[in-house]
Amino acid sequence: MKKIILAAAATTLLASTAMSAHAAPAKAATCVGCHGADGNSMVPNFPKLAGQHASYLEKQLKDFRDGFRKDATMAPFAKSLTDDEIKELAAFYASQPAK
Ligand code: HEC
């Protein structure tokens, strides 16, 4: 019995981890206009985020937020992000196929 409960718990955990890798985090709503819903932006001025490495995206967002990377258009959107939100956004865009 104990084994069955453990297996069920593990399955639920795996399923929710897999889902969270693909569902857009709430903060992504502010990024859609420039970077596209799945990180494939339509405009060349706005870099594609889809399929880039999560660790790279995470570093860029922190650099914008903390002023190490400067861009008047992008920086204001990074300013209010917490470390956790940045991690979620980076994981989300990294999991999207680049088109
Ligand atoms: C008003 C348009 C705009 C919005 C909204 C916007 N960005 Fe950007 N973003 C840009 C521009 C422009 C650049 C390129 C800046 C540069 O040339 O350094 C950029 C760059 C980036 C990069 C670096 C990409 C790379 O390849 O180095 C990341 C990561 C990023 N944005 C994430 C986000 C996230 C996450 C959001 C939402 C919280 C967001 N952006 C909202 C315009 C925008």
Describe the structure.
The chain is mainly α and 99 residues long. The chain has one domain (2-95): Cytochrome c-like domain (Cytochrome Bc1 Complex, Chain D, domain 2, Orthogonal Bundle). The protein is 54% helix and 0% strand. The chain is built from five helices and no strands. Helix 3 runs antiparallel to helix 5. The longest helix has 19 residues, at 2-20. The N and C termini lie far apart (47 Å). Residues 12-20 have low confidence and may be disordered.
Q: Write down the overall mean pLDDT.
A: 87
The radius of gyration is 16 Å
Regarding CATH, which class? Mainly Alpha
Residue runs with pLDDT of under 50 for 5 or more positions? 12-20
CATH architecture heading: Orthogonal Bundle
CATH third-level topology: Cytochrome Bc1 Complex, Chain D, domain 2
Number of strands: 0
Structural class: mainly alpha
Largest sheet entry: none
Written as H for each helix and E for each strand, in order along the chain, the element string is HHHHH
Morphology call = globular
| Residues in helices, as a percent range | 40-55%
Instruction: Provide the β-strand percentage band.
Output: under 5%
Number of domains: 1
State the separation between the terminal residues, measured CA to CA: 47 Å
Number of helices: 5
